[in-house]
Amino acid sequence: MTNVRIKAVDVYHAKKQVDNDVYLEHFKKQGKDITNFLNIMGRKKRYVIDNPKENTITMAIEATNQVLKKAGLKGKDIDMIVFSTQVPEVTVPTNAMFIHNAIQAKKGTVIFDMNANCAGMTIAVEQASRYMKSNPHVNTALVVGSDYLSLVADPMDAMTYANFGDASSAIILEKTESDIGFVDAMFEVDSSNRNNILYPHKGLSQTIKAGESAESMLWLPFDGTMSLPYTYEMFEVILERNQLKIDDVDIFCLSQFAKVNMDEIQKHFDIPEEKVIYVGDKYGYTGTSSPFIALHEGIESGKIKRGDLILFWTIGGGHEFITMLFKY
C-alpha cells in the first residue's frame, strides 16, 4: 500500500541570536518587568533577522537548498512545492514561485502558497501527504514553512517583540511502499476568537484606503490555556481511532509557542521528558515552522529514529488546531 514518508528535513535561521537581557532592558524602559512572561513562554534566546537582504523567501530558499542536498535531490526531482507563511514577502506572485525558480524545478511542478498562520506548515504536510496518495503523478513534494515574524512584532508588546524568532524549515515528502509515513490527522476550529490576533489589524482594504501603514501585529491578551481541553480531546480521539495509546507515541513535536502549554500537556498525559522536544529556548517562537524545527532537532540529536511514531500538534490564530500522526 502506497504511503508518504518524510525523506529529509532541514532548517535555516537568521544569524543574529538575541538573549533575554536585551528585551528585559527594552521593556524596563517602558516601566514593565517581563521576567515572568519570558519564564512562562520558555524564552532564553531567539534568532532575529538583522540583514536588510533577508526575508521570508530568502530564508525559505536557504532551507530548501539544504534539504535538497541532504536528500540527494535536484529541483527537477520535485513534483510539488507548497510554501507556508503568514508573513509573505509578496502576495503576487506566489512565494512558491521564487522557490521554484531558485531550484530550477520543472515546468509541470504543482506549486502554491498556503496560509493557516502558525498551523500552516503542519497542515501543508497533511494536505500534501493526502494529495500525493491520490495523485499518481506526484511522487516527491517539497513543503517549506517560513516566517519573518520579527518584521511585524510590536515593540510595545512583549508577546510579539520578545517572543518571536525568524526561521524556516523545509521537508521532503516521498512515496513509499514500506510501513512508515503519514498515519492520520484531525482538526479543531474555534472561530469565535478570530479577532484576537490580526494583521493588518484594520484589514488590508481599510489600511490601504486610509493611506496607513500596517507596521505591527495586533495581539489582544487571552488565556493561552484555553487550547488545552481541545488538545487533550484531540490526542485521545486520534489515538483511539488508530488503535493506539499515548505510550505508543515515541516523540511529541509540538507547537513551540509557550513552554507552559507543553508542560501542561506533558503533565496531563504523564509523558516522559525525553519524549518531548523543546527548541523554543534558543529559536524563539518561529510560527509555522516550529513543530518541524523540533523534528529536525530530534533527528539531529538522535532522539528520533526511523520507525518512530511522532505526534505533531500546533495551533493557528483564530483558533485552529491540528494534530497529526506520522511514522518517521
UniProtKB/TrEMBL annotation:
Beta-ketoacyl-[acyl-carrier-protein] synthase III N-terminal domain: residues covered: 112-187
Domain Beta-ketoacyl-[acyl-carrier-protein] synthase III C-terminal: 239-327
GO MF annotation list: 3-oxoacyl-[acyl-carrier-protein] synthase activity
InterPro entries: ACP_syn_III_C (IPR013747), ACP_syn_III_N (IPR013751), Thiolase-like (IPR016039)
Swiss-Prot/TrEMBL keywords: Acyltransferase, Transferase
GO annotation, biological process: fatty acid biosynthetic process; secondary metabolite biosynthetic process
Residues of the signal peptide: none
Record-given protein name: 3-oxoacyl-ACP synthase III family protein
Source organism of this protein record: Psychrobacillus psychrodurans
